[in-house]
Amino acid sequence: MRIGIVVITVLILLGGASYVTVNVLNPPPAEVAQDYLELLVDREFSKLPAYYHSEHPHPTAADLADSFGQFAAAFGLSAVELLRFTPKEESLTNATYQYQLQYTSQYFPPLLIEDDISLSREGLFDWRVEWIDNFPLPDYGLAAKYSRTRITPERGSLYDRQGHLLAGLGSIVSIGVQPGRIQDPDQLHQILQQTLELSPEYVRRQYQAPGVQEHWFVPLITVSEQRYAELDPILRPVPGVFFRREETRVYPAGASAGHITGYIGEVSTELIAQYPQREYEVGEKMGRSGLEYGLEEQLRGHPGYQFYVEPNNGRRTMLTERPVVTGESIHLTLDQEMQELAVELLSDKRA
After folding, report:
1. What residues form DSSP beta bridges with 245?
2. Whether residue 339 has pLDDT greater than 60
3. What b/e sequence results for 185-206 when a residue is b if at least 16 CB atoms lie within 10 Å of its CB, and e otherwise?
4. Are 118 and 53 in contact (CB under 8 A)?
5. How far apart are CA 254 and CA 225, in angstroms?
6. 3-class SS string, 237-283
């Protein structure tokens, strides 16, 4: 009888000890899952492989870092937050929890991610995460590629009080030559010098420069559409002369209002750093003087962005976007005809 009582007591003690070891001394599944998700939030990818169940395929720390790094760069990721964590199913051997992550971007509205995380026991004591290929975004996995497209805003125009364009989108014409089509170099040089004041030495130096091919268009000078209309009947018959039209910002009032409208130029690295909120990019144009500079924010607008995912063996899809803001067109109190008259009357006088 006593032996039976002793055996039962020992079994109870052993069972209690096992329970304490399994459920008290080792973290419960909810705690393991939360720790894992917090490491994701903190981007501590080197620590994540220790959480994965060894009997389930799982990525390396480098795989996680590479995929998330590309996502973060394309999305303009600025913060990751764990917003919600709730139990979904718990048993002695398995547990599933639902969580919600928020990705915050410097370009796009926040992305809310809702998904499940499942754990199972590995051995008697430890809980491990069963990897599902749903990171950084569900349904796409680690093999997906991410990209961002930038949409440059159309710059607003400047008009005088009568609605005449002072600064805005227009076109200019580039006048040049095609070396292989030149038949009479002396005639070509003479006409270009008479009409455009281009010296024969300059013209020859351009189309005979090292590396220039016979079929190339070699630009020599750009002129306004009005000037091109005057030159076209004179230059078009000359063999070797060609024209190329290109869109650009134009200032039809010319020198009479140039000191007022100002001009645009390529943004410098210093200005990119000075105005981060404007999101300038290298090579972009901005106002550098006059009203172009003073009214830069209104005239420029704000760039838009599109965020794309390209799944492995899938179709490129836009996930979210920030619409482009077109620049504002501004009407001034300036009267272009009066301005031109004033310039003519003053001539070289200061006023």
Report:
1. 173
2. yes
3. eeebbebbeeebebeeeebeeb
4. no
5. 13
6. CCCCEEEEEEEEEECCCCHHHHHHHCCEEECCHHHHHHCHHHCCCCC
Residue with tokens 């796009």: 108
Residue 93 φ then ψ, to 5°: -120, -15
Strand ranges, E, within the chain: 77-90, 94-105, 111-122, 126-129, 145-151, 158-159, 165-177, 218-224, 241-250, 264-266, 285-287, 304-310, 317-322, 330-331
Predicted local confidence at residue 41, as pLDDT = 95
Cα 40 to Cα 28: distance, rounded to the nearest angstrom: 19
Q: What are phi and psi of 99, to 5 degrees?
A: -135, 160
Q: CA-CA distance, 88 to 296, in Å (whole number)? A: 54
Give me Rg for the CA atoms of the chain.
35
Q: Count, in order, helices (H) and strands (E) of the chain.
A: 11, 14
**Residue at 86: amino acid letter:** T
What's the pTM value of the predicted model, to 2 decimals? 0.76
Q: Alpha-carbon distance 178 to 198, whole Å? A: 16
Per DSSP, the three-state class of 124 is coil
Q: Is 161 in contact with 333 (CB distance < 8 Å)? A: yes
Can you tell me the distance from the alpha carbon of 193 to that of 186, in angstroms, rounded to the nearest whole number?
11
Task: Give kind and range of the element (H or E) at residue 12.
Answer: helix 2-20
How is the chain split among helix, strand and coil, in percent rounded to 5? 35, 30, 35
Question: 181 CB contacts (<8 Å, ≥6 apart)?
Answer: 239, 240, 242
Cis peptide, bond prior to residue 136, ω within 30 of zero = yes
- Residue 21 has a CB neighbour count (10 Å cut-off) of 12
* Residue 289 clears pLDDT 90, i.e. is over it: yes
Count of beta carbons in the 10 Å neighbourhood of residue 229: 11
Distance separating the N- and C-terminal Cα atoms of the chain: 123
At 19, is the pLDDT very low, low, confident or very high (cuts 50, 70, 90)? Answer: very low
SS3 135: coil
